[in-house]
Amino acid sequence: MRPKNVNRPIFLWGFMGCGKSSFGRRLAQCWDLPFYETDEMIERLVGNSVSQIFTNLGEDTFRKYEYEILHSLELSSPSIVATGGGMPCFNDNAEWMRTNGYTIYLSLSARELTDRLKRSHTTRPLLQKKRGEELFQYITELLATRETIYRRAHLSLDALHASPEVLEQIFNLGLIA
Ligand code: S3P
User: Fold this and answer.
1) Can you give the pLDDT at residue 167?
2) Residue nearest to atom 2 of ligand 1 (CA)
3) What confidence category does residue 85 fall into, taking pLDDT thresholds of 50, 70 and 90?
4) Could you give the angle at which helices 59-71 and 50-57 cross, rounded to 10 degrees?
5) Which protein residue has the closest C-alpha to ligand 1 atom 5?
6) What angle do CA 141, 66, 74 make, to 5 degrees?
7) Three-state helix/strand/coil letters over 69-91
8) Does residue 97 carry a pLDDT above 80?
9) Ligand 1, atom 11: nearest CA belongs to which residue?
10) Helix 164-172 and helix 20-31, axial crossing angle in degrees, nearest 10
11) With CB atoms 3.0 to 4.6 Å apart as the test, which of 96, 125, 152, 164 could cross-link to 30 if both were Cys?
12) Cβ(39) – ligand 1 distance below 6 Å
């Protein structure tokens, strides 16, 4: 059941493949809240896939759409928002989300992420053409630069143990405010 003190959007942060969307969907269903996925919102806005946007319009344009979508969200009521892995790392997005909602980082190690992402090179533009050791190196380096930002979230949860029940306890105990 949704804790009574959840009155703003909950923004899920984390590296590609950490499970923001599946955890977000589960949480939204358990707590009976609307669920938003920023990548999906951008795809609907532009009428094209994230990969196509990167290829045809470039990453900078994608980051502008991310900013636009973030600022279009309804803030006066609670919801669950699964953000793209780069969302908190560009513009003032991280601070904006911290100010306007609860931010939760779902953490996983570079090794765990690599194992999960091995099969995703066709859909994730940043990982295209990277395989094996090269993929692991890339993830290790990008995670190292991003993790300092992700750790600014109100709460960090090990993605392997994140559940609606755990989060319910955290909110009920007032450990996130
Ligand atoms: C990105 C992560 C992707 C998507 C885009 C860029 C990133 O979202 O927004 O490919 O910069 O880490 P997921 O984290 O849902 O894969």
Assistant:
1) 97
2) 85
3) very high
4) 130
5) 84
6) 130
7) HHHCCCCCCCCEEECCCCHHHCC
8) yes
9) 86
10) 60
11) 164
12) yes
Q: Which ligand 1 atom is at minimum distance from the Cα of 38? A: 9
Closest listed residue to residue 123, CA positions, set 21, 54, 45: 54
User: What are 132-161's pLDDT values in tens digits?
Assistant: 999 999 999 999 999 999 999 999 999 999
Residue 88 to residue 70: CA distance in whole angstroms: 10
122 pLDDT exceeds 80? Answer: no
**Residue where the block lists tokens 């990167």:** 54
State residue 176's pLDDT score: 87
pLDDT of 128 strictly over 90 = no
Tokens 């955890």 belong to 23
Tell me the one-letter amino acid at 143.
L
pLDDT band with cut points at 50, 70 and 90 for residue 121:
low
How far is ligand 1, taken at its centre, from the CA of residue 31, in Å?
A: 25
